[in-house]
């Protein structure tokens, strides 16, 4: 129970303000209806009369006229009294804003202007570069479907995979140019920094490339361990050791000469 709420109700009740007026004022000030109900349910302390009854009887005739004037003033003040409710505290439930501005809708990606690409010599490297750059910028493999660069489409799709977080971009290689499938998956795995995709790659070249780039991107030397080629694995560890300036990381390199080279490189970087 909030003591200031109880005091406010008592004060205004004694002043002659109706319960309905008090309740409306409190709701407008942001007080929760349950808190208001609880405050009204508590017994209000009765204000002691300002004058003793016997005293009023003795002087009732003498002050009759004065009492009538004072009574009129008090009655008028009750009718015109402005209710000033206390401010809600942090624990009271705030009144929801009816004028809250809704969050802006996401901006749709503009459709790339391919007019310049269409005007170039068909099936030329310049036209391919134009379409590839547009597809990469928009992360939209559909741009690679331009009929005049059909021979370049696999390379265009791989370029999109290098920036895309969506592996479905690789679905094209399930049917066409299947030899590029794992290359595409490796590209997506590197973008997502996801070694679970790397582990599924059977081709040794792309398997190792995937692990090495993810490990270096995350600066986690333990991710170099699955790399099959020993030299590539040591190179992976050495690059991370130099980035982190930690010669201790070099200790995981099996080849003594490469381990010493790693340690010297780290120390020279200090």
Concise summary:
The chain has 270 residues and is mainly alpha-helical. Helices cover 53% and strands 0% of the residues. The chain is built from 13 helices and no strands.
- What structural class should be given to the helix and strand makeup? mainly alpha
Say what oligomer this is: single chain
Mean pLDDT: 80
SSE run: HHHHHHHHHHHHH
Summed up, the domain count is 3
Strand content: under 5%
Overall geometric form: elongated
Question: Helical amount among residues, as a percent range?
Answer: 40-55%
Give me the Rg, rounded.
40 Å
Structure, explained:
By secondary structure, this protein is mainly alpha-helical. The protein has 3 domains: 3-80, no CATH class; 112-192, no CATH class; 203-270, no CATH class. 53% of the residues lie in helices and 0% in strands. Helix 7 packs parallel to helix 8 (153-161), helix 11 packs parallel to helix 12 (230-244) and helix 12 (230-244) runs parallel beside helix 13 (256-269). The longest helix is centred in the N-terminal third of the chain and has 17 residues, at 64-80. The radius of gyration is 40 Å and the shape is elongated. It starts with a helix and ends with a helix.
């Amino acid at each position: 129970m909030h003591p200031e709420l109880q005091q406010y109700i008592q004060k205004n009740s004694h002043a002659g303000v109706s319960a309905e007026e008090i309740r409306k004022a409190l709701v407008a000030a942001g007080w929760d209806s349950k808190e208001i109900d609880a405050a009204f349910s508590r017994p209000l302390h009765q204000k002691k009369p300002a004058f003793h009854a016997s005293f009023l009887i003795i002087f009732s005739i003498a002050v009759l006229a004065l009492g009538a004037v004072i009574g009129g003033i008090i009655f008028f003040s009750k009718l015109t009294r402005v209710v000033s409710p206390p401010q809600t505290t942090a624990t009271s439930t705030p009144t929801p804003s009816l004028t809250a501005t809704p969050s802006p809708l996401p901006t749709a990606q503009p459709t790339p202007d391919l007019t310049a690409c269409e005007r170039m010599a068909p099936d030329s490297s310049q036209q391919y570069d134009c379409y590839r750059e547009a597809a990469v910028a928009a992360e939209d493999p559909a741009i690679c479907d331009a009929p005049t660069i059909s021979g370049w489409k696999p390379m265009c799709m791989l370029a999109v995979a290098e920036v895309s977080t969506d592996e479905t971009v690789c679905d094209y290689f399930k049917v066409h140019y299947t030899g590029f499938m794992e290359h595409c998956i490796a590209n997506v795995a590197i973008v997502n920094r996801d070694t679970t995709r790397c582990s599924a790659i059977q081709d040794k070249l792309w398997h190792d490339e995937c692990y090495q780039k993810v490990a270096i991107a995350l600066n986690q030397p333990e991710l170099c361990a699955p790399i099959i080629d020993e030299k590539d694995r040591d190179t992976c560890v050495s690059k991370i050791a130099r980035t982190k300036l930690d010669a201790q990381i070099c200790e995981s390199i099996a080849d003594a000469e490469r381990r010493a080279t790693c340690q010297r490189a780290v120390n020279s970087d200090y």
